[in-house]
Specification:
Length: about 350
């Protein structure tokens, strides 16, 4: 969805969101450096400006399509139904899988396809399997309890926080002073969102939520962010060779699709799956299409802009999700939610490493 900077994207945060840190960091930095060299050499400055404009447009469209995917997922979300959430996650992943499969088979050179037979391909498949259950399934379940605004913001904050922490512990990546400040702010954001989770859950369930339901909404959303970030770290830790983003996406998604399909058939059965109304099938597939478009745009954005700008653009999803939750689904816009959103965006902006301008 590019294994770009720990995204996100929640739905962006949701597939590629999970792949969001590993491969594109180097490509993005190389692109930024090359653009700077063009400027320093007094070569076409308009090329740099065009890259900034196009990258900004791609980043905003990425956030919009990611939000559209999350709205569709929220529409089909059902409280306390993990089996249904599993089916939704499965159907949503299909457009991404088919798109990546087409690119790998029709566009990539035959030499690169040989990677499918290698051991690292199996590792990616297993990473995808665990990420889909811990990430997309948990995210979908959280939507049914906590709603759109709370779930997206909690997932986003946890994803960035976990990515930085695991990167330091497992990969030895340094945490600069700016990053440390950003981490502290993100912890505060998660705390604020947790304090407001009761009101959010009440508005979704339209009744007084129990302590277990509130905890379920918070923990499921945080688990999804943790799983997405862990996916990116796992890819970077285990992959020792250059692999195209399409190949990575294919294997990550395929692992999840196989696992979710098996789980859905086992838990729901063929008859119940077939009896699902066509409207719900359409909405689930639209969520997948929007998610695939968001992943593509995220890749383009990382190739054109420094990480700090990409994070600033994609973080607008948190505000978009809260607005959509209130306007479309009647969710509560609490003071804690507003504080949590502002802290998440601030923490992400401060914690990002400032790349070449």
């Amino acid at each position: 969805m590019q294994v770009a900077r720990s995204y996100g994207r929640c739905c962006l945060l949701t597939e590629g969101s999970s792949m969001s840190h590993a491969a594109t960091v180097t490509s993005e930095e190389a692109t930024a450096e090359s653009l700077t060299q063009l400027d320093d050499d007094h070569k076409p400055v308009p090329l740099l400006r065009r890259a900034v404009v196009v990258g900004t447009i791609c980043g905003l469209l990425c956030a919009l399509f990611g939000t559209a995917a999350n709205i569709a997922l929220r529409y089909v979300a059902t409280p306390h139904d993990m089996d249904w959430a599993m089916l939704v996650a499965f159907v949503k992943a299909l457009p991404t899988l088919l798109t990546a499969l087409f690119v790998v088979l029709a566009i990539l050179p035959v030499k690169e396809r040989a990677f499918l037979k290698s051991r690292p391909a199996g590792v990616l498949f297993l990473i995808g399997l665990t990420t889909q259950f811990g990430g997309n399934l948990a995210f979908q379940y959280a939507l049914g309890l906590g709603g759109l605004g709370l779930t997206v913001c909690l997932c986003f904050a946890t994803l960035i926080l976990t990515g930085a922490t695991l990167g330091r512990v497992l990969l030895g990546e340094p945490i600069r002073p700016r990053s440390a400040v950003g981490i502290v702010i993100l912890v505060a954001a998660i705390a604020a969102l947790t304090l407001g989770a009761g009101e959010a859950t009440n508005s979704v369930l339209q009744s007084e939520a129990s302590t277990l339901e509130i905890l379920g909404a918070v923990l499921a959303a945080c688990l999804s962010g943790f799983a997405f970030a862990s996916c990116g770290v796992a890819i970077r830790r285990n992959m020792t060779q250059q692999v195209s983003s399409s190949m990575t996406l294919l294997l990550i998604t395929a692992g999840g699709v196989v696992g979710l399909a098996a789980g859905s058939l086992t838990r729901l059965g063929v008859d119940q799956i077939v009896s699902t109304p066509s409207t719900l099938w359409l909405v689930m597939l639209l969520a997948g299409v929007f998610n695939t478009l968001a992943l593509y745009l995220l890749t383009r954005t990382y190739r054109l802009l420094p990480v700090i700008r990409v994070n600033a653009l994609t973080s607008t999803q948190t505000a978009m999700a809260a607005i959509a939750g209130v306007a479309i689904f009647g969710e509560s816009l609490t003071a804690w939610l507003v504080v949590g959103i502002l802290l998440t965006i601030t923490g992400l902006a401060i914690g990002s490493h400032r790349g070449s301008q």
